[in-house]
Design a protein that fits this description.
Blueprint (H helix, E strand, L loop, with lengths): L3 E10 L2 E11 L4 E5 L6 H8 L7 E6 L2 E2 L4 H7 E4 L11 H11 L8 H8 L15 H13 L5 E5 L7 H15 L4 E6 L10 E6 L2 E6 L1 H4 L7 E5 L4 H9 L4 E7 L2 E6 L5 H11 L2 E4 L4 H10 L5
Parallel strand pairs: 3-8, 3-9, 6-7, 7-8
Antiparallel strand pairs: 1-2, 1-4, 4-5, 9-10, 11-13, 11-14, 12-13
């Protein structure tokens, strides 16, 4: 039986459809990532999974428990780290950890081995108020509190948002260690590069899943020719010009470059002639997760 089983859930806020008939499963011991921009519906979905929000319709099972009828049991086996830092800012690091351990009827010592690799990094600051910690330290404290009762399932809503690049890498290294303990992890993020760290990912936009697959497989649905274009200056101006060309299927800014998909292989020669005429550097490239996401956004029926 899947550890998480979601079937056709729908959630709306007035006229806004936050979730549109979402269905998916997460297997025990898996890291399942949900990748999407702000407003995609990730937080609404996670609040339903941890029984803090009721779906308008559909069914959700967490480790065999119904999210509506068995919410008390679910809360005992799930560790939840919301997107916004929600610990007690006027309590110290140590006081926060002791409080959450007490809530779940345990203590720091009982499951210390599970959080040791995380907690040793913040233990020198255990007397410091949580509100005075850096973003990376707050992140580690929140994860420690979510793990202190050794949950079966860990639900992390954009845990790396607002922290530096080094802390992001460290955090994902910690998640891989937690996975080895047999804990199922479902994590959301707006960062496409973090998708590669997951066992499977769902690409989400406007309340819908556009694709679910292994990171190495997702881009294989991208069948068009993809080029990266470089120009000394004026990438945005170049983007506007290219989008008006008949051979352009899609084009978007990618850092300081433009990524371009062609309508068909027959258009490649026309594009190369155009690129030489205006003096831009081009390179045919293999699509990544973000390229696939952008293509699916334009053509959702392909997902």
């Amino acid at each position: 039986m899947p550890e998480i089983n979601v079937h056709n859930i729908h959630k709306s806020y007035g006229a806004i459809n936050a979730l549109k008939d979402i269905s998916f499963q997460v297997e025990k011991g898996e890291i399942f990532g949900i990748i999407g921009p702000d407003g995609a519906g990730k937080t609404s979905l996670f609040r339903i999974l941890v029984s803090l929000l009721l779906p308008d319709s559909g069914q959700v099972n967490i480790a065999g428990f119904d999210v509506i009828n068995d919410y008390k049991k679910i809360r005992n086996i799930v560790g939840y780290m919301p997107g916004r830092f929600s610990l007690y800012q006027d309590l110290s690091v140590e006081e926060n950890l002791k409080f959450f351990a007490t809530v779940f009827g345990t203590n720091i010592e009982e499951h210390y081995e599970l959080i040791r690799d995380i907690y040793v990094q913040i233990e020198p600051f255990k007397k410091r108020l949580a509100g005075k910690l850096s973003g990376g330290m707050k992140q580690k404290l929140a994860l420690s509190c979510a793990l202190i009762h050794r949950p079966q399932i860990l639900v992390l809503d954009e845990p790396t948002t607002g922290v530096d690049a080094v802390s992001r890498v460290e955090f994902w290294d910690l998640l891989r260690k937690i996975k080895k303990e047999g804990i199922t992890i479902i994590v959301s993020t707006p960062y496409m590069d973090e998708a590669a760290r997951c066992d499977r990912v769902a690409l989400m936009q406007k309340g819908e899943f556009m694709s679910i697959n292994k990171p190495s497989e997702i881009y294989k649905g991208f069948t068009k020719i993809l080029y990266e274009l470089r120009l000394e200056d004026g990438a945005y101006k170049l983007l506007k010009s290219i989008r008006e060309m008949k051979w352009c299927a899609n084009a978007w800014l990618f850092g300081q470059t433009v990524h371009l998909t062609l309508n068909s292989p027959e258009d490649e020669l026309d594009f190369i002639v155009y690129a030489k005429q205006i003096g831009i550097e081009t390179q045919r490239i293999t699509p990544g997760i973000e390229d696939t996401f952008m293509e699916l956004m334009k053509n959702p029926e392909n997902g």
